[in-house]
Design goal:
Rossmann fold, mainly alpha, 8% strand, 3-stranded parallel beta sheet, single chain
Length: 158
């Protein structure tokens, strides 16, 4: 785990060796990145390259996940609407749209876990809970939400 980098950073052979190969993972989990929402050809190519490097150099399974929690959309709405309707709002769409990453991994036959929907479904069902420590990053409550969603995925994964 290293924040603020993205796949373009890890496709550098030295960085990949240092942060992935050195740990010999059975499973490489990529995701949660806000840059998945502004995916372009360069980002897509970087993700694909890191997946291929993991398969070739480590032989591990790869899992890509959409962004869980980041900006609190409840502060920009009345907090009572279906969060999926926010996809129509350009100021919030970048936090919720993960289609380009999903399309990329589908082509490479890699597992994709939608962390966005279950996290935001949970968030929409609670009120009065602040999950941000600074407006973007999660506090302990936000990390617990993500952990619970991951747990459910692992319990049902095949």
């Amino acid at each position: 785990m290293r924040g603020g980098t993205g796949c373009a950073y890890y496709r550098d052979p030295e960085e990949f060796k240092k942060y992935v190969v050195a740990y010999k993972p059975d499973l490489l989990m990529i995701g949660g990145a806000s840059n998945f929402s502004k995916f372009d050809k360069e980002e897509t190519d970087a993700l694909a390259e890191v997946i291929k490097m993991a398969r070739e150099q480590v032989g591990c399974e790869v899992l890509v996940m959409s962004q869980p929690l980041s900006s609190d959309w409840r502060k920009k709405t009345d907090g009572k609407m279906d969060w999926r309707k926010l996809l129509d709002r350009p100021d919030l769409r970048r936090y919720l749209d993960f289609v380009p990453a999903r399309d990329c991994v589908r082509k490479l036959n890699v597992a994709f876990w939608d962390m966005t929907a279950p996290c935001h479904d949970y968030l929409a069902s609670v009120s009065g809970h602040d999950f941000n420590r600074d407006g973007i990053h999660n506090n302990d409550f936000g990390k617990q939400i993500i952990g619970r969603v991951l747990r459910q995925y692992f319990l049902t994964a095949k």
